[in-house]
């Protein structure tokens, strides 16, 4: 069977740097949507239908229309400039998949943590895991329809973030919004890398 090869299926020959970025967060926070919004190739989603047994474990109160959930990993790719490619790995949100979180952060340059303004406390577990493993991260508050709009200063305090940790808002459904969050993360990682470079 013949098929067309499109340029976005390939990494540009000008690329000299690649980075693994983890997109993390609690259950139903929008990670799969985020990866799908920014990926320049058809994203890989490992999703399963939410079953009756799952509803007894996972809290669907804030996402009653949610019919599938990530049980493995979401994967996407995005060129960021001519010389840098980001490989995006979205984690499952349920704490029972924490063993996968541990695996996915191995080799990651950094992480973007999506948080739900309706349940900020749900983010503490993944934030703690990243900090314990020394993975730098930025935080983006995903804006859901009808969700409260907390001042970023209050979110910063509620999540007990370090003063240097980038914090922004985004809408996981909108590509431009997601790209701004990714750019903020990569700029932060670049500043960290420069700071850690040994002096001559």
Automatic annotation (TrEMBL):
Keyword annotations for this protein, in alphabetical order, are: GTP-binding, Hydrolase, Nucleotide-binding
Pfam families in UniProt = ATP_bind_1 (PF03029)
The protein's matches in InterPro entries, at most eight in alphabetical order, are given as: Gliding_Motility_GTPase, Gpn, P-loop_NTPase
- Source taxon at top rank: Bacteria
Q: Which SUPFAM superfamilies match?
A: P-loop containing nucleoside triphosphate hydrolases
UniProt record similarity statement = Belongs to the GPN-loop GTPase family.
The name this protein carries in UniProt is: ATP/GTP-binding protein
Q: Which source organism does the UniProt entry give?
A: Streptomyces prasinus
């Amino acid at each position: 069977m013949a098929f067309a090869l499109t340029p976005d299926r390939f990494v540009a020959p000008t690329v000299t740097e690649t980075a693994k970025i983890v997109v993390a967060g609690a259950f139903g926070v929008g990670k799969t949507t985020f990866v799908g919004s920014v990926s320049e190739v058809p994203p890989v989603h490992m999703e399963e239908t939410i079953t009756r047994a799952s509803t007894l474990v996972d809290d669907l109160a804030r996402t009653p229309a949610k019919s599938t959930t990530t049980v493995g990993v979401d994967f996407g790719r995005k060129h960021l400039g001519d010389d840098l490619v980001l490989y995006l790995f979205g984690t499952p949100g349920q704490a029972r998949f924490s063993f996968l979180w541990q695996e996915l952060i191995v080799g990651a340059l950094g992480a973007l943590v999506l948080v739900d303004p309706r349940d900020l406390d749900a983010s503490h577990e993944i934030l703690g895991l990243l900090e314990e493993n020394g993975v730098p991260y930025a935080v983006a508050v995903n804006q859901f329809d009808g969700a409260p709009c907390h001042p970023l200063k209050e979110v910063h305090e509620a999540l007990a973030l370090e003063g240097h940790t980038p914090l922004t808002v985004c809408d996981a459904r909108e590509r431009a919004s997601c790209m701004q969050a990714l750019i903020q993360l990569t700029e932060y990682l670049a500043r960290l890398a420069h700071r850690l470079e040994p002096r001559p």
